[in-house]
Amino acid sequence: MSSHELKTGPLEYRTQEGQMTIMGFWIFLAAEIVLFSTLFATYAVLFGRTADSTPPGELFEPGIVLIMTFLLLTSSFTCGLAIHEMRRGSVKGLLIWMMITLLLGLGFLGFEIYEFIHYTHEGATMQSSAFWSAFFTLAGTHGLHVTLGIGWAILLLIQVAKRGLTPRTSRKFFVIGLYWHFLDVVWIFIFTSVYLIGMVV
Amino acid sequence: MQLDEFFVTGEPLIYAGMVSIALVSAAILFILTYFKKWGWLWREWLTTVDHKKIGVMYILSALAMLFRGGADALMMRTQLAFPNMNFLNAQHYDEIFTTHGTVMIIFMAMPFLIGLMNVVVPLQIGARDVAFPYLNALSFWSFLFGAMLFNISFVIGGSPDAGWTSYTPLAGAAMSPGPGQNFYLMGLQLSGIGTLATGINFMVTILKMRAPGMKMFQMPIFTWSTLITSFIIVFAFPILTVALALMTLDRVFGAQFFTLTGEGMPMMWANLFWMWGHPEVYIVILPAFGIFSEVIATFARKQLFGYKAMVWAIILIAGLSFLVWVHHFFTMGAGAFVNSVFSISTMLIAVPTGVKIFNWLGTLYKSRINNTVAMMWSLAFIPSFVIGGVTGVMLGMASADYQFHNSYFLVAHFHYVLIAGTVFACFSGLVFWYPKMFGHKLNERLGKWSFWFFVIGFHVCFFPQYFAGLDGMPRRVFTIIPEWMPLNIISSVGAFGMGIGFAIFVFTVVYSYRYSEREKTGDSWDDGRTLEWATPTPVPFYNFATVPHINSMDAYVKLKEEGKTTFDEDKLEPIHMPSNTGQPFIMMAFLFVASFGVVFEWMWMAIAGLIAGVVMMVIRSFDYDEGFHVEIDEIKRTERSTRGL
Ligand code: HEM
Ligand SMILES: [Cu+2]
């Protein structure tokens, strides 16, 4: 437990605690990759096993999924800008870009919830077949991650507004930035391997 | 739900269990209140973030679980000793082999080893705690609450009965209705969070907190095995998390992953389970290898032979452990090509394992062996484990496995690797590091008695099972036919021998607490090679007053030669330490409530518990506690008194 603090370099990397937390979070993301890979594999195995429920090709709509993709990708970009502002030492910039990020994230969630309800009305539910169980679990786990990320980021916004930029608050924001980009990457895989393939097959 | 559905009724053995639980709990409450120990319990243990205390709690809980799993085992061996026994009925027998297997692997073997890692690894690398002490406490409480959830199943709601592998469709809602199987799912899920966190924690600790100068290839071998085990945990546990979650969705929310309806795929469970499950058996054997290496090098009084080869062997085994999972279900009929591939990868594991065996023998060769109890456990391991490994290779031949699979031959194999490997290592490591943890040694004479009872009992119990298996005795049967009786009687006698060995061990602990001489130096065995022996005993809570610069393997041997210690008065600086906190305990208590709710499908309870758990996380997020500093004067005082200066 060393309490020595570096005097230069990004704030979040100045304490040993900060460095270790960031490394720990990278490892956590590795575990998350395994988690999502397992869900993707499950989805792939159960692909096409719709029993007598509606097949995905009849339900997936390109429009709405494209909007969702656009929202989430943009939010990843604005999240990058937020961290950039943080590195420049601007609390205001950080807060503004982060809030935009969260709004985009909320928009994404809104569409996803609408989509899920829509499918449910069409008779495709978690219970209707193996395929739909896998679909809702994979997309739902991603959606749950986005929800948690939004809640978490709000806590951090309050903290940075109260305390300003310190090695600790910057470290927390840096970490949530990693998390947010990670969710974006996962979504790209969902977009391609679930929706695009689901629409053409 | 009626009260008589909530509690398990109608079984005399279970009533006895309830009564003993009630009595033991009442006795604990009474003792704590009578001796006014509640405050002490809370301040010293429930809120601690000290890796040494957390390690001790892990080990004590694991011993309790060994007792529980052992009691299950003795009941099964009683039932199987004679044909047509009426001690356990089929249902009860099924529940017992399920809880036995699950408890032993998830709640005994892993926590025991994690406990030893907690105590030893930071000391071996010259660190003052793990990287994330708060998270470490969280891991422990998640394990303990998960274990409690699983263990109450036999008096409340009924135990799971589909085996520790919980194959679907048997374990699905259609064929195993009721809370039993949910206890398995939620108990493992809850404790799995902690295991994953432990993996991350130790990885960062070992990569980032080594003493100045200590290179990777100068780390003690137990630390190496912990590092690699952490990798396996990080890459394997999320698979279990998903598998359990999917089965929970199936059972509680009507999803169709592993069902026979809705085009579900029951075989997918077996795949997911073993993609985690095989790495899991290496999670419990690699740290064991590390312990044996430390003990053998110390008591052979030699540098470990082939250190680098040992490290590479561990790494290779870890990699291969992810590529062999199909060998658990060759008979499911994946086809000749798939079976051949997995057959070969399975047999390949024997190569690095063999390398390690020869390295241990090389370390022993021409050494002056100090035959302590810790060393005896390690020496007994080598030949016993070889038997387990060789029969493993036999099982790995896919075509032959059609004969061996699900017979007692398999049962004998995995007990030879898990007991002669993991359990012997737990005893060896516990006896070895006991003085560091508790300030006195375990009595050696009693230790030898317990060792001989346990080891002889072990071979008497499990060696005949290979032959029972070859005689066609299938696994997981609750009664035997007369032809198998002689072998089974021998086996049961051996099992009780192990029980006696364990009882003597517990007695040794109590006896040594009263009569053993208190340790005066930090280097209890005089031949310590690694940094944990450089600390005084009892170890100060900050571990190292000063951390020396390390530039060789076996750092403590070098320090002794140079006459250096970890108390260099000129270099003292205030030490930064984390504060205690009750949050991890409370958070996991809430998640326990939430999991209990899921088990009984009482969603109000699940949601309430979950919300309370999330509130605890929010509180944690706003917690900017900076820890505290130990001042130089206090360090000097502590070191002088513990070092007798
Ligand atoms: C030389 C190394 C090993 C080989 C080649 C090997 C091979 C195998 C094979 C092929 C099976 C499946 C047999 C069947 O179900 O018919 C098996 C089962 C098993 N092995 Fe090993 N094994 C080895 C080492 C280990 C180790 C080190 C452990 C644990 C410490 C272990 C624990 C188990 C367990 C628990 C099972 C049974 C699981 C169950 O069905 O409940 N094995 N082994
Ligand atoms: Cu295996």
If you had to describe this structure to a student in words, what would you say it looks like?
- The complex is a heterodimer of chains A (201) and B (645).
- Chain A has six helices and no strands.
- With 201 residues, chain A is mostly helical.
- The model of chain A has no long low-confidence stretch (mean pLDDT 94).
- In chain B, helix 6 (133-152) runs antiparallel to helix 7, helix 7 (180-208) runs antiparallel to helix 19 (583-599) and helix 10 packs across helix 13 (373-396).
- Chain B contains 21 helices and two strands.
- Chain B is mainly α.
- The radius of gyration of chain B is 25 Å and the shape is globular.
- The N and C termini of chain B lie far apart (66 Å).
- Chains A and B meet through helix 1 and helix 5 of A and helix 7, helix 8, helix 9 and strand 1 of B.
